[in-house]
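We emphasize that the prediction below concerns an isolated chain of 466 residues; any contacts that depend on oligomerization or on bound cofactors are therefore not represented. The input was used exactly as deposited, without trimming of termini.
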Amino acid sequence: MINKAVDLARKAQVEWVKVPVRERAAIFRKFSKLVLERQAEIMDVLQEETHKNRLSAFEEVLDTVQLTHYYGRHSAKFLKDKKRSGAFPIITKTREVHRPIGVVGVITPWNYPFTLPSTDVAPAVIAGNTVVLLPDELTPKCADLMLSLMREAGLPDGVVTIVHGGGRVHGSELINAADFIMFTGSTATGRIVAKQCAERLIGFSGELGGKNPMLVLSDADVAKTAKGAVRSCFANSGQLCVSIERIYVVEKHYDAFLKAFVAETEAMKLGDGNDWEIDMGPLISEKQFVRVRDQVTDAISKGAKLQTGGRVRADISPTFFEPTILTNVSDDMDLSRGETFGPVVAIYKVATDDDAIWKANDTDYGLNSSVWGGAAALKAAPQLESGTVTVNEGFSASFASHDAPMGGMKTSGVGRRHGRQGLLKYTQPQTIAVQRLIGIAPIGKQTNQAFAKLVTALLGVWNRIR
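Result of the prediction step, given as a token string:
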């Protein structure tokens, strides 16, 4: 099945690359408009498959609209041939071009099943590639709806092909057939994908796991930070790669912050359905529910203190787990260092701002950090070892800055989404140099030594005036 899909994509790519970049990009500007117009339909399908709350579904629509429009508007500029300094002035004319890689395999997860496929496919396709997409097996309808809207926007048949069944079923086969892999998922699976790509010497980009910290520093506004922490930790029921799972609070703010954060969390409206005022919905599946429940149970059994939450809410949904705040969390607990990917956060007291920074960096992960305060936050931000750092907000400000790269340090990923890098990773840079008038070699009967002296003199002059 995969080999057939890749073969068809390879044939389609021969014709697709002949379409001018501006025409390819225009399709995604139209797609962006269609997504905005059809947002209610998209949100309905998102909620049906994921059970996320309505606002989280809207945010997925919003991200798709903004990022596909961004690439639709800027890709031609990013892909334009660029003049580069030649080997020798005047006589060497050099330019950099970007050629598509060929067939890109895209493997996406269930937590953002509309925006992640859309925003991975768009730059790959605008760059002149074709795509074989493996959406997660839990969310097939979202991917199908995405492709139908792309085709309605003018995308020809064969440029994007969806194969259902998910990465567990088809991932290895796709990696063995495609020319580049874009993967979003866990760090453990990312290692497997990267190893298989390395064996074939094909490109790989992966957004992987995170255990993202929030820092409440000495000059933070406690009330504002507590409100922000609710969204930072519990958006999309915590099933978000950049959401916060660890909070480090300087000692002088600890008691006030904990009290305010617990109060804000307990004020959340919990539910399952299309009501816009629901703040948090159920987890997507029994498997994810069990993972979250078991981590909390393990932590409490080893001495963690439950500040709020921690209960199963079967009255709402069989997979609903309350937003949960824990203290007294230690390294022998599963959720201390391992990604939870659910509505659970641990709070730690630290003595100073520097202690908070050190604790935040004491992890194998490095996807996103959130830091709250004034001058202290601005000072701390560049010291944090993560691909994005968001000041006085949880993650949206950096994730939605689509002109800037997004991705992970350490074991949180390889490569970047968004911005120029998020498009050019789907290309092969090529240097074309045209030599004119004379070659770069001795002229006529000139000796090698004489040639070397002449070039040395010319370079000396050139370096002084340049």
